[in-house]
Amino acid sequence: MTKLGFKDNMGNWMIKPVFDDVGDGFDSDGFCPAKQNEKWGFINQIGNWLIQPEFDKADPFDKYGLSRVVKKRKWHIINRQGETAVSQTIRYFCEGKDHCDFEHNNKNFSIESTGTQICFPTFFEAFSGWNPEPGDDGKAKSSWPECDKNIKAKYKGKWGVINYKSEWIFNPLFEDVINDDFYDNIALVKFNGRWGIVDKQSEWIIQPEFDAIKGFEFSDFDNNWWNALGENKSGRFRYEAGIRAGCIVAKQNEKWGIIDLQGEWLVQPSFDDLTKLNNDWLYFAMLDKKWGIIDKKGKWVLQPLIDNEFQPFQNCFAQSGVTERWGLVNYLGEWDIPASYAFTDIQQLQLAEFDDADYSRARLDDKWGFVNNQGEWIISPLFDDLGEFTNDLSRALIDDKWGFIDRKGQWVIQPKFDLVDEYFDSKGYARAVLDQKIGFINSKGKWIVQPVFDWADHFHDDDAGQARASMSENWGFIDRYGKWIFQPVFDWIDNSFDSKGYLRAAIDDKWGYVNRLAEWIIEPVFDFVDLFLNSDTIKARLNGKWGIINREGEWIVKPIFEDVNHLSDLRELNSIMNEIFVVTINGKKGLVDEKGEYILMPLYDDIEYDRPNNYARVKINKKWGIVDTHDQWIIRPEFDYILNFNKDNNLAFACIDGKNGFLNHKGEWENPL
After folding, report:
1. E-strand spans in 418-473?
2. Domain boundaries, the chain
């Protein structure tokens, strides 16, 4: 059996090949998983065991210094001393962003990577979508969504919606609930056997009067607003901007129709089925087992003559009730491709969308070509793969080699490359790979930049015209002639400079920042540094401890913490207000300001800071309360969970020992549920 070890850049053995398997490399603390005699443990950089090989599986340590391992078919979480950090009775778990989801004693719950429970196994009866059977690798087949997602949960037989910290987004009052994260202010709920819509205060937007509700569809709203939000598009924005003009597909007395946001019928329930098209105000509708298309007023755009159910794509195959043949129908009910295909042909034929010249990629019998909007082959299906046409060129694959063809199917660039980009950039450059090296070709297939690099990004489409490239595991920047602008001396560099001309880089395993002349403006003395993004401060690690530095590389918050984070990951607030940081020391969290002075002492297991009101929800000893910025209790930590004070009624929703209700600022129940 082949044994594995580690070599240096000169090919010399740093660690002799004595292991059955090893991880991808060493982490910042010098730990690497290694397998010997069918068991996993952790070695250091000279091959000595840091943690003896006694596990069936072992993952690398995360940023909290924790690793999940398997021993005797049980999952554990261990620390760097090999000590169990989380109970050994866990049967399997799933990974989340900063948490893991577990099943134990037929209860589902979640813990943070620090081992602190988020969702308690005695609290929720079930999570929606949980599959109780683990896969072959011991993991559950479905896991918690990303940390900013919500999930429905059942408590005392009623469903609601919680976030990943067990906070109720929609209270558990319903027989069923559907909450799409894109519409995070509203939920479809089932109450007394009927469906309606509620807001986060559990107030009815639409009364529960319907057999079923399929969901929301919105009118167009001003795209300038949508574009202005950029990456910060949110469900709340779409809700506010679009829902008031929205239409909802609903069912009553076994028939489907369309209602508005007041629950009034826009289209009377008269259809056997109804589905919204990916086109404004058109719907697939079925009547007497025939499909057609209606508009938002219920008028037939395409009469119900089609036998099969439409598929909601730009164009869709349909069967003619007259000829019993198949073709391609558009949203107006027009035959883009006449009904001339037998069903067996349709099973084999796949089409993409048509371009401006009415070309569509099509596959038949595992070979690709192009058809026109009459279904006729313009370019015969001879290719193993094809790209879309860009500037009248399409990349094409045949016999494991890539080239480019024109709209007649003729080779413009012969298929001689291992891989090529899908298109040429504005300067006529495309990346190409040959013999595991990457370079750049022009539209005639000639090398502009020879294939000598291990990797190269696309050239920046600006006057600088540079591209990040790697050679012999070192990184730099090249110009459009393939000459080095930044010599390849860096262990790593980011792909682009920030708005102030800073570029993150690493050399000799130390991180800093360089300017556009490749000069160090923040010296590489840190174990790791974060990205500046929209802030002038970043977190940095030195000797295993985290702090905050500014753009001069000076410590704003000294590196004495196990972790430091900006209060807001997006940091827009921080760009106009004094910055606040969440710090962790000895496993406890606190808040410090931009001078490194404590706002809240590190006493808490978790902190959720309400910046406008200058107080924080905190968790201590598994109980939640609310403190002011002098660490004085507004509401003592006695609750299983608690939400912020509502700005309308100045009350906080809370739960303790199964009792739910609202608290005033004295911690007294105003109206327990």
Report:
1. 419-420, 430-434, 437-441, 447-453, 455-456, 467-471
2. 351-423
